[in-house]
Amino acid sequence: MSKVTESAQSGQDQFLDSAQSLRDYLQASVRQALRCVIEQEVTALCGDRHKPSGQSDYYRAGSAQSYVMAHGKHEPMERPRVRKHQEDGSSKEVSLTSWKLAQSQDEWEDAMMRATLCGVSTRSIPSLRESEVARESRSSISRLWQKKSAALVEQVQDSDLSDFDVVVLMLDAVVLSDGLVATVALGINTDGQKRILGFRVGNSENQQVCEDLLGHLSRRGFKVAPERRLLAVLDGSLALKNALLSHFPNALIQRCLVHKERNLKGYLSKRHWPELNRLFGRLRKSQGAGDAKEAADAIAAFLVDKNAQARTSFEEVGSELLTLARLEVTNDLSVSLLSTNCIENVFKNLRLHIGRVSRWRENTDQADRWLATGFILTQQGFHRIKGFNKLPDLVAALELKACTTLKEEAA
């Protein structure tokens, strides 16, 4: 071995030794910090160790061997004991708040849930904890997962919606497996905040499942302000549209431009795709009803001599591609509200978490638990929609007085 190689090897060994030393130092620092916090509480109750307070009912009573939670595992540590004088002359031991927190399992349970959601099998979770004493069995972790995920299902499916002032509703479905489809509702409120409102699992994206979902949302307090209409962004599913209009007959529907453009490309030769992209780009950037109508007419004219089915598919949409533009609001909101991308991005992140599920059991609540945990984790990264500061203009445009003829014109 050359001197350079020997030197490099020696340097690496020193680095590894230093890294281990650093880890030991950090762990010792955490234990010392815990001791300081606990000692501060004891001192607050009993006074200084060598100058006890004569007026306090609390006094030190030695210590006992116990443990605290640190670095996701049990760490042995002596527990200070404090007792309190009673009026009858007896005494009782006092539970220290800081010690309770130091022994909390919440940190480990939260880490376990994050690990499971990020794709770590419950079989592998015990290896995340180094201490054999603290290591959990696979069965206990599985039970903990079921308990916590069931609580998250309740959080998603039963939380109160009455304080979430929805302006825009998006409905879409995600396929879990053959014969297992989840229909999901996402709401956007007046502040531009997004929220997963709820979901229903069925065998397809059908009207009955969507009606059940919307009915459940209504029972939880979901409602539209009586003085305005709801704007719904849909991908073109007739089942979702019919279900929506059965619950909110005054709703205005904006069809997703991304889905319609993708649908038209399915009928056209690839040599026509660049021009179709350009025309749809013009439609997305249009400002106001007149500008949007000209962009839509340009797409219709382009399709006249290209493909009859493509032309029919575009004509079928009617004015639903132009709903947002016809409300005469700024196109700053177009990037967020002219497509179902807000909910499609949720599905994209969801698939990262449910991708490891190899078998879906339709006769259990398995799908509900995985969906709820995935949605909650995804929702933690939500930001307000682009152009949210222009939402007051949209709210004003959706007032019944401002758009009384919009639905009649669409008809």
Description:
- By secondary structure, the protein is an alpha/beta fold.
- The protein is built from 16 helices and 8 strands.
- β2 (73-85) and β3 form a beta hairpin.
- It starts with a helix and ends with a helix.
Hey, roughly how much beta strand do the residues contain?
15-25%
**Series of secondary-structure elements, N-terminal to C-terminal:** HEEEHHHEEEHEHEHHHHHHHHHH
Mean pLDDT level? 79
Q: Strands of the biggest beta sheet: in what spatial order?
A: 6-5-4-7-8
**Rounded Rg:** 30 Å
Number of strands: 8
Distance linking N and C termini: 85 Å
> Which stretches are low in confidence, meaning pLDDT under 50 for 5 or more residues running?
118-137
The amount of helix comes to 40-55%
- Sheet of most strands: 5 strands, mixed
Category by helix and strand content:
alpha/beta
Shape field: elongated
What is the helix tally? 16
